């Protein structure tokens, strides 16, 4: 029996139990998967609980992806580079940290036939996930990375991180209409990584006309999966751009985590279809 969990705060609306449950059922792996609210600062108590209750591994969401780092016995090199961990596996009593978010996004993009290489990437937002995706874009040899964020300093901090790592010049800015239009005019891959348009937040873009500046073949992705088509994606579809919502990333990062828990590879595309079908129901 594989005993797993997801921790975070808030956690009530997490899709992780459904996604991992569907994947492990498809793989016929007996398992439990708990959803546990762990507030910021409560990681030591949770780790104590996990040890006492024989938890074999757990996924982490806000606000723990960075806070977990000092507690780990071993960190996978890519997770160390991203400065964030979303998967912990217990191996011989040791806490081992991994990050499957980046490869999850890359796999979802590949599934619709697109890639980072040689793309001019524009990212909206500068939170935890952007730190990871911006580094992924550089690792995968994007032609350029532009990060636009409400708080411009946060975009600039990620830009400095990319430049320190070398290999790519990052452009950073705010989210004025002028900055959005200018960035979109030279963009092959647009990634919407803010909660704008997410169900239940009551927040959305006031004006989406900046999307009209995108070159015809630009791919438009939104990390949000609820609703499955945000107004942002609907406008991109209306303009005939290839689009992708956040469900693909959600599923692939979970499948990659399950490969870590199980210590074996499986046919992710076959399991993906079963998980996506279950979520739709
Ligand atoms: P985060 O660390 O909280 O960052 C949120 C970002 O959104 C910040 O840059 C913030 O700007 C910006 N923002 C928030 N409210 C805004 C508003 N009203 N107007 C403009 N900008 C606003 O979150 P995160 O972890 O990076 O996640 C970002 C998004 O990606 C979320 O929607 C999350 O659900 C989604 N996500 C999806 C997946 C998936 O598997 N599909 C995985 C991870 C994340 P400031 O810096 O100015 O505050």
Q: So what's the overall shape? A: globular
Sheet bearing the most strands, described? 6 strands, mixed
Give the low-pLDDT segments. none
* Secondary structural class: alpha/beta
Mean pLDDT: 95
> In percent terms, what proportion of residues is strand?
15-25%
Counting DSSP H or I runs of 4 or more residues, the number of helices is 10
Order of helices and strands: EHEHEEHEEHEHEHEHEEHEHH
State the end-to-end CA separation: 26 Å
How much helicity do the residues have? Answer: 25-40%
Q: How would you characterize this protein structure?
A:
- The chain is α/β, with parallel strands linked by helices and 281 residues long.
- The chain is built from 10 helices and 12 strands.
- The chain has a 6-stranded mixed sheet. Strands 9-8-7-10-11-12 form a 6-stranded parallel sheet, with helices on both faces.
- A hairpin with a 2-residue loop joins strand 5 and strand 6.
- Helix 9 packs across helix 10.
- The chain is globular.
- The site of NADP nicotinamide-adenine-dinucleotide phosphate has 25 residues, from helix 5 and helix 9.
Secondary structure layout plus pairing:
Layout: E1 2-8, H1 16-26, E2 31-37, H2 43-52, E3 57-60, E4 74-75, H3 77-82, E5 87-91, E6 94-98, H4 101-111, E7 120-124, H5 128-139, E8 144-148, H6 152-165, E9 170-173, H7 177-185, E10 189-192, E11 219-222, H8 231-238, E12 243-244, H9 247-262, H10 268-280
Parallel strand pairs: 1-2, 1-3, 4-6, 7-8, 7-10, 8-9, 10-11, 11-12
Antiparallel strand pairs: 3-5, 5-6
Helix pairs in contact: 1-9, 1-10, 4-5, 4-9, 9-10
The protein binds NADP nicotinamide-adenine-dinucleotide phosphate (NAP).
NADP nicotinamide-adenine-dinucleotide phosphate binds at residues 62, 101, 125-130, 149-151, 154, 193-196, 198, 203, 223-225, 246, 249-250, 253.
